[in-house]
Amino acid sequence: MSRLSCKHLILEAAEAVVRDGGAAHLTLDAVADKAGVSKGGLLYHFPTKEALIEGMIAQVIERGQERRAVALEQLPATPSRGLKAEIISLLVTHDVDHRVSTALLAAVANEPKHTSRFRELHRERFAAHTENAPHPERVEIVLLAAYGLFFLDLLQGSPFDARQRAALVEELLRLSEEATLDRR
Question: What angle separates helix 49-74 from helix 3-21, to the nearest 10 degrees?
């Protein structure tokens, strides 16, 4: 088995451990058992539980980037394209695995270095969308609303039914068009 596929197998097993038993059950032994590898094999790729969590976070970030890239390819080349791809990747094509994502959110919240990684990621995401925008504050409001809805979904605290949520997503897409038009 190649290193990449073994790492991927271990990360998938770690997600399954969290999904099946919650964050408290994320131990190196449990992940090694679930992945069908020796603990030494797991430690070769992830020498600590922290390294394993970092790998899980990197995988979540990579999936988000892949969803954004796919959405970007499918949208026409307009000024709102990047912002719309962000919204679509967060709220349309993203099927949140609540247990894994919530566990990762808890890990990030409890470890300052993980929090800083997410902060930097979001700083980059916001900057990418506002850098040349004619109305950067409007773009930021659209992004904040999209991320707010995303986190409400993630934490299963959204007060919106499916119809209301779909209408909100449509409105965010419409507002993204407005926020990127230069009407000075």
Answer: 100
Burial of 29 (0-12, 13-18, 19+ CB in 10 A): exposed
Environment class of residue 162 by beta-carbon count within 10 Å: exposed (0-12), middle (13-18) or buried (19+)? Answer: exposed
The first and second tokens of residue 182, run together, are: 């230069």
Dihedral sign, Cα of residue 95, residue 173, residue 85, residue 83 = negative
Q: Which residue type does 171 have?
A: E
CB 83 within 8 A of CB 179: yes
Tens digit of each residue's pLDDT (9 = 90 or more) over 57-88: 888 888 888 999 999 999 999 999 999 999 99
- pTM of the full structure: 0.83
Contact of 112 with 94, CB cutoff 8 Å? no
135 torsion bin: left (phi>0), alpha (psi -120 to 50), beta (else):
beta
Cα–Cα distance between 69 and 177 in angstroms, integer?
19
User: For the chain, how long is the longest CA-to-CA vector?
Assistant: 63
CA 106 to chain centre: 14
Beta strands in 129-173 (DSSP E): none
AA identity, residue 47: P
Residue 78 token pair: 């307009």
Nearest 5°: the CA angle 117, 7, 121 is 15
